[in-house]
Amino acid sequence: MIWGSSGVKLLTIESYFIPFILEKFYETNHNPIAFVGVDILRAGTTLCYALHNGAKEVIPVVDSNEAMLIYNRLDRESVLLGGERNCKKIEGYHLGNSPLEYTLEKVYGKSIILNTTNGSALFKMGLGLKNFLIGSFINISAICDFILQRIKTDENNKVILFCSGNNSAFSFEDAIFCGCLVDLLIQKLKGKENIKMNDATIAAIQLYNIHKNNLLEFTKSTEHGRFLIEQGFEKDIDFSLQSDFVPVVPISNGFSFVIYK
Ligand code: MLT
């Protein structure tokens, strides 16, 4: 166990703004309290909302071939294909990637195969890691509470945040979410003297502090925000920026994401 100067356990938080670094964690002996995968617009928010509305599981895939392979193995009555390319629903799929589509009526009891441009690829990579969670603004307190609980009970002391970004590049909304989550952890831990952060985490907090008073408007002005608005999905941004009405922690079971119990 590592102890900070005040005798309190020292927490290390690392953030990564693009997803491909994740693979390096397969080879090392990292066993953090939590890995958190982030895709605010929109796959991560959609995944959280689907589980909240009673989906049995969300199975992330990288492309339609993989989606169809899994779809053909599962019982047709209890599986739905969801996802997008260029933000639009994929032809032949039951659902797009708008969180608003993932209502209780549609998803209750179903396995959802999720195929999106950036988010589902990151989440798929995360399936291979223990304690890989999905974080979004709509379940931020649940994620924060999971981490705080584990700080008390685990020998480990590290949290690693992965942004899915936008086509292999940085995206503001994912980085700002990381800043918001770390800010919340700092508040709950009553100070940051016992938290060690990498530069990306410090940058994420700074970005969050710059934009926290107009988060919604700022998100609408970002690259992906503008594209979603052009495609008619402004309501999804409004939905995805709401804080904390979904008390679920999606966790990987090696094949899919389910609610942590
Ligand atoms: C993605 O995974 O790239 C996104 O969720 C894109 C979107 O549908 O907004």
Structure, explained:
The chain is an alpha/beta fold and 261 residues long. The protein has helices spanning 24-27, 43-52, 64-73, 104-107, 119-126, 140-153, 172-188, 199-211, 215-221, 223-230, 234-240; strands at residues 11-16, 34-38, 57-61, 79-85, 88-89, 111-115, 132-135, 158-163, 195-197, 250-252, 257-259. A 5-stranded parallel sheet has the order 7-2-8-1-9, with helices on both faces. It has a 4-stranded mixed sheet with strand order 3-6-4-5, with helices on both faces. The chain has a two-stranded antiparallel ribbon with strand order 10-11. A hairpin with a 2-residue loop joins strand 4 (79-85) and strand 5 (88-89). Helix 6 packs across helix 7. The chain is globular and about 50 Å long. The two termini are 26 Å apart. Bound molecules: D-malate (MLT). D-malate binds next to helix 5.
Query: Which regions contain 5 or more consecutive residues with pLDDT less than 50?
Result: none
Gross morphology is globular
* Number of E-type strands: 11
Strand content: 15-25%
One letter per element, helices H and strands E, the order comes to EHEHEHEEHEHEHEHEHHHHEE
Bound molecules: D-malate
Distance between the termini: 26 Å
Q: What's the mean pLDDT score?
A: 94
Protein structure class: alpha/beta
Main sheet summary: 5 strands, parallel
Helix fraction by DSSP (H/I, runs of at least 4): 25-40%
